[in-house]
Model the fold of this input.
Amino acid sequence: MLPNFIICGTQKGGTTTLYHFLRSHPEIYMPPVKEIHFFDLNFHKGIEWYKKFFTYSKYKSYKAIGEATPLYMYLREVPERIHYYLPSVKLIFILRHPVDRAYSHYWHEISLGYEYLSFRNAILCEQKRLKTGHIFNLQHYSYLDRGKYIEQLRRFLKYFSRDQILIVFNKELKNSPVSVMKRIFEFLGVDTKYIDPMWFRKRYNVGRSPRSWYLQRLYYKLKIRNGNTWLTKAICKLNLRKGYPLMDLDTRRRLINFFRTYNEELELFLNKKLPWWYK
Done:
């Protein structure tokens, strides 16, 4: 009654797309709720609470049972917790260009109403925010810190063997979904010949930006005070539009240099070059 695989991250790396792609496979079960957050935000609720997400009448007909919570990759305490309950679990990580991921993460927080600083000021304030150790700050303001993928993967390797871990790349999933999904299906031990036409048609979790920052902050305050109401939903519908501005080139160059050492270490670990991450 527990998963045998988990998509652990990274946030804004394509986990929503991967969740839907996997969920379409007839031999794979994933709960309707994408992010359960058991091993991070809901660990105090206990394993019986977690099991409820995997109670399904046709459970025994599935070869792979999984969930997707991208915050798992980032938080330090999670690998040990997963290992305690699921020592044989298979772990999938989907990685995105760390600069693009950070910028997408920033606009995601803007759209939620959590962020109010410019991107430049947000990354300047990041370490100060993270030093508080507050889970809210770790979850919402870790723009650059989450892009240090090699550090996060090493934490998992303290508890899991290399053959329990599969790493794929956002760019490759976009450009070659069939070959990437075949690798994942093989890793999970399900039919590798399965193809879903929706892989080529639908985009999930498209980035958005507000027409008015003031309205988006108002949305956040109203949601905190009253929960999701018709008014907060209306603000989001009217105020958010698809896409966000391009990052300025100087900031992009500085961030590529910031991530260079981490990316080079990741390349050595994977024995794979990632040339598009230096542009």
